[in-house]
Write a structure and sequence with these properties.
The complex is a heterodimer. Chain A is mainly alpha-helical. Chain A contains 11 helices and 4 strands; from the N terminus they run ααααβββααααβααα. In chain B, a hairpin with a 2-residue loop joins strand 2 and strand 3. The chains are: A mainly alpha, B mainly alpha.
Chain lengths: 311, 410
């Protein structure tokens, strides 16, 4: 252990920002799990599709390459986030219709859902690798926002992008929390997560609510994808895999099915990961994240806050 | 395949026991000849299978089976061989016991690395443990793989199925990345100069060099057949029925007194054993292994092989492995290495196999070659959803193609 005290501050900040992105992706896992009691293995592809969607719409069609400023910037940030969200939400809905619903109708075994989701994920991921889409290499994300340091905190530069990620993540979590706990849709989702048969008997349209769940989870995944692209400046065909796995770990850490848990789990994992990168070595970052996952599952499979959707 | 409607009670009394055990041929039982034991395993059938497999290289030499891309075409035989071993092992875990293992190639990797570390003779910058004969490393490679199955299985098998999937996936990444970082395993540089095995029979010395591509295939034939015999025998034993019970309904199985965790562990350990053999063969054949030769993708591809071939079906696992390894080669040959509709043959196949997984799960849950027992179960699946009505309920039974006289045996 040779933790450099001077690096703790910056590591904390980067960990927090990464954790915010994980938390946003984790929402998709946790919501689908809350309702269907299934791990949505294809959510990593949903996340990647959002990022790639922004790349295509802004970067390729509208040719946004120059950093903007002033009104243009204020206009384009929500547009980019929305595009990512909508593309991913669409992807998630298509996924539910094609890879989940037929199995649900047949009453297939859990194993079938997992295999189907893995298949869908690999299909989308490797489709993006083909030359008619992204191709095998990294592609530049439309660079519409110039990185600049807004202020400094704990010796760390808090850039405008990091601030944006943090604020967006917090806003998204608040919005989702409100949706789940205070709207009619949210009530249906909670009802489904309690007891799917009872909810159906009470007149909840199960198919529509499940679709909505995928849609909401996909939407936030897409926003995360858009933010991820802005922060790291590239899209690549397999970009979903590692963040997806980490976000899943975050969801499990906080208690899968639990939305507030996903938020805390995401930030916690981001911090653990970055701290271990500094203290043990950058090459051990990913193994340690996975070891956290395995340990949490063995010691406390319900996560820190238990498996309960809604507050 | 005709269908007949039978009474549920009759079905359970008569057909169900017959489906779960293979009775020896009545005639042999009466005569009680000494090789009745061989007969039980179906020894002669395997002899025929071995003979057929042995002729494949000859057929390839004579161009009856077209050889693709010269020398690489011959090594496809070897690649297919060890993939068959892998998919057979995974079919025990996923197909028979119903445990989704997404990190199966980690066991394969451990087998290969054990072999490499035990036998290594080369690489100056490398940690030298022992310098053992190649053959002596084989049992240890298998033991390490099985031990790893026990190690990852013991704490996690109490978890729900989907958690197990993600833990095994994490396990694969932990093993691969740790190997990539540790100095003992020579980090990302990998281990080189793993010696080839030597065989001396009746004064004939076979040197397994890369130039003797077919020797490896002859090494793989007994390994594959042994794995097939093992899995078939296990499937038809009490252990196999335990696995089926666990796969279909874990809670019910536990209530009936099935030692659920122990049986799951057995599935994990036995499944890992064939990957140990495959790892040994892989390491000694290539003489060089590195962490990047074992990407997570391969774990998923083995799963594709098992699922597309048919969960729980041995023939399916073999067919799946053959498809996974040869299909891209055939496509590449036919397309002359060019892209087809924009699909690159090498990476596009994974997209296609991914789609295959979804389609198989939706339209043909039993896979291309569905296991006979599972086929019967799937025929009943419609029943499971409906409200169960005792005695009077009828099911469609798929009459299997077994000769009628066998029915009289029991």
């Amino acid at each position: 252990m040779d933790c450099n005290a001077g690096l703790i501050g910056p590591t904390f900040i980067t960990g927090l920002i990464l954790g915010a992105i994980y938390a946003l992706i984790a929402l998709g896992y946790t919501m689908v799990y809350g309702v269907l009691k299934l791990i949505n293995f294809a959510h990593d592809a949903v996340f990647a599709v959002g990022s790639v969607g922004v790349f295509y719409v802004l970067g390729q069609w509208f040719g946004v390459t120059e950093p903007m400023s002033g009104v243009g910037l204020i206009f384009i940030i929500p547009v980019a986030l929305l595009i990512g969200g909508i593309v991913s939400a669409g992807g998630a809905v298509v996924l539910e219709r094609l890879a989940y619903r037929p199995l649900r109708k047949r009453g297939a075994a859990r194993l079938s859902f997992l295999i189907s989701a893995i298949g869908a994920s690999f299909f989308v991921t490797y489709l993006m690798q083909q030359s008619f889409l992204l191709g095998p290499g990294k592609r530049g994300f439309p660079n519409f926002m110039e990185t600049s340091t807004t202020f400094r905190l704990f010796d760390a530069a808090v850039t405008n992008k990091r601030l944006l990620i943090f604020i967006t993540a917090i806003l998204c979590l608040i919005v989702l929390d409100r949706i789940i706990n205070q709207t009619r849709t949210g009530r249906s989702i909670r009802a489904l997560s309690e007891d799917i048969v009872a909810a159906q008997l009470m007149g909840v349209n199960v198919d529509r609510v499940i679709l909505t769940t995928f849609l909401i989870g996909g939407f936030f995944g897409g926003i995360a994808g858009s933010l991820y692209g802005m922060q790291f400046g590239f899209v690549v065909w397999n970009m979903g895999f590692i963040p997806g796995l980490k976000a899943f770990t975050a969801a499990v850490l906080g208690g899968i099915g639990n939305i507030r848990g996903a938020a805390v789990g995401g930030v916690l994992l981001g911090l653990i990961e970055n701290m271990s990168a500094v203290c043990i070595g950058a090459e051990w970052k990913n193994p340690i994240a996975f070891m956290v996952l395995v340990l949490v599952l063995i010691i406390r499979p319900t996560g820190l806050f238990g498996e309960k959707i809604g507050g | 395949m005709a269908t007949k409607r039978v009474d549920l009670k009759t079905y359970l009394n008569e057909s169900a026991p017959r489906l779960s055990q293979r009775l020896p041929d009545g005639v042999v039982k009466v005569l009680n000849v000494p090789w009745v034991g061989w007969q039980r395993i179906g020894f002669f059938r395997y002899l025929v299978a071995a003979a057929f497999m042995a002729t494949i290289p000859i057929l390839m030499d004579k161009d009856i089976i077209p050889v693709i891309n010269g020398s690489f075409g011959k090594s496809i035989l070897f690649i297919t061989g060890y993939w068959i071993l892998l998919s057979l092992g995974l079919s025990v875990v996923v197909g028979l016991a119903g445990l989704l293992d997404l990190g199966y190639v980690a066991f394969f990797m451990l087998g290969a690395y054990t072999t490499a570390l035990l036998t290594d003779s080369g690489s100056p910058d490398q940690f030298h443990f022992f310098i053992w004969p190649t053959w002596a490393a084989l049992p240890f490679a298998v033991l390490v793989s099985m031990g790893a199955g026990l190690l990852i299985g013991a704490p996690t098998l109490r978890l729900r199925g989907d958690y197990l999937a993600i833990v095994t996936l994490g396990f694969h990444e932990i093993v691969r990345l740790s190997t990539n970082n540790l100095t003992i395993t020579n980090a990302s540089r990998g281990i080189a100069q793993i010696p080839n095995p030597q065989v001396n029979i009746f004064g004939l010395n076979f040197d397994f060099g890369l130039e003797n591509e077919y020797y490896w295939w002859f090494l793989l034939i007994p390994a594959i057949l042994a794995a097939v015999v093992m899995i078939k025998r296990l499937d038809n034993s009490r252990v196999g029925r335990y696995w089926t019970a666990i796969r279909e309904d874990e809670v019910a199985a536990a209530a009936m007194g099935v030692p659920v965790v122990r049986m799951k562990l057995w599935a994990f350990v036995i499944g890992a054993s064939t990957s140990g053999v495959a790892g040994w063969i892989y390491a000694t054949n290539l003489s060089f292994i590195a962490p990047n030769s074992f990407p997570l993708l391969n774990s998923i591809l083995v799963l594709c092989a098992v699922v597309i071939g048919g969960l729980g079906s041995i023939a399916g696992a073999v067919l799946g492995a053959i498809l996974i390894t040869t299909l891209p080669e055939v496509v590449r040959e036919l397309s002359g290495g060019r892209e087809i509709f924009g699909f690159d043959p090498e990476t596009g196949r994974i997209a296609i196999f991914g789609l295959g997984l979804v389609l198989v799960m939706i339209y043909r849950p039993g896979g291309l070659l569905a296991a006979r027992r599972r086929r019967t179960e799937l025929a009943e699946a419609g029943l499971a959803d409906a409200v169960v009505v005792a005695d009077t309920t009828t099911v469609d039974e798929i009459i299997d193609d077994r000769p009628a006289q066998e029915d009289e045996v029991h």
